[in-house]
Amino acid sequence: MALVGNLKDIKLANLVQLNCMEHNTAKLTIEYNGKYGFVYFEGGQVVHAEFDPFIGEEAFFRLLRLYTGNFKVESGIRAPAKTISASWNNLLLEGLHQLDDQDQKSGVNFKNLFERLFTIKGVKRIAVVDTEGHVKAKSHPEIPDTWPIAALVTYEAERIGQSMHLKSPQFVSVNMGNQSWIIMPQKKGDFLLLEVGKKTRLDLIMPLIKKAVG
Questions:
Q1: Mean pLDDT across the stretch 69-93?
Q2: What is the reported pLDDT for 107?
Q3: Cα torsion at 112, 124, 99, 65 (round to 10°)?
Q4: Which of 32, 63, 187, 192 has the most other CB atoms within 10 Å of its CB?
Q5: Residue 72: in which H helix or E strand, if any?
Q6: In which residue ranges of the chain is CATH 3.30.450.30 found?
Q7: Residue 154's pLDDT band (boundaries 50, 70, 90)?
Q8: CA separation (Å) from 192 to 100, 130, 180?
Q9: How many CA atoms lie within 13 A of 48 on its CB side?
């Protein structure tokens, strides 16, 4: 029987430790937003990883950055190739070290904030952007490193509000094609961006988001 779940509840690092310490041969499939990643175990070692367009260690490290995504572990499936030679514990330590470096470069550890926000049903992706449009932290690797739309949208909303003698908005909701985003100005001048499901009700989700942000 396959083990299934979501990375919101069981982190990839824990799944790796579990399969390696039990000397499993298995295939771990991760899916989020229609994109798939794979990690293969043989005899308790990570031997191959894929996360289009990456393979090997880089694919593994990028999968490790995901805060959410459905997963399935299937026993007895061997890797189609062997692209990773490092021991599983060294591989995991290097991946976690890269995550720590990312937080240190931003000057803030957003891990706990992201984990709280991902407990809210409807939240799909998260980013923190500064006033220059540079992304300081992101939940998914395909989110661009620069994203000036947050500052632009909030500026325009404030300008319209001022012309109508209204207070600055606490958040702005934006629909862009198939995506819906909530943009929230933060105390330190940053902007919190959250992609939410199209059918998500703002009156239900916003109190939860404000509580998670603190």
A1: 93
A2: 44
A3: 140
A4: 63
A5: strand 70-75
A6: 108-213
A7: low
A8: 20, 9, 14
A9: 15
Nearest partner of 19 among 82, 65, 71, judged by Cα: 71
Nearest to 111 by CA among 123, 95, 94, 128: 128
Sign of CA dihedral 90, 138, 32, 70: positive
Which CATH code is given to the segment(s) 108-213?
3.30.450.30
Q: Is the pLDDT of residue 32 over 60?
A: yes
Average pLDDT value over all residues in the chain: 83
Q: Which amino acid is at 189?
A: G
**Long-range contacts, 7-11 (Cβ 8 Å, 24+):** 7/66, 7/67, 7/68, 7/69, 7/70, 7/71, 8/67, 8/68, 8/115, 8/118, 8/119, 10/71
What does the pLDDT look like over 106-126, one tens digit per residue? 445 677 788 888 888 888 888
pLDDT score, position 58: 94
What distance in Å separates the CA atoms of residue 212 and residue 192, rounded to the nearest whole number? Answer: 12
Structure tokens belonging to residue 183: 């943009």
d(CA 158, CA 162) in angstroms, rounded, equals 6
Q: Is 188 helix (H, G, I), strand (E, B) or coil?
A: coil
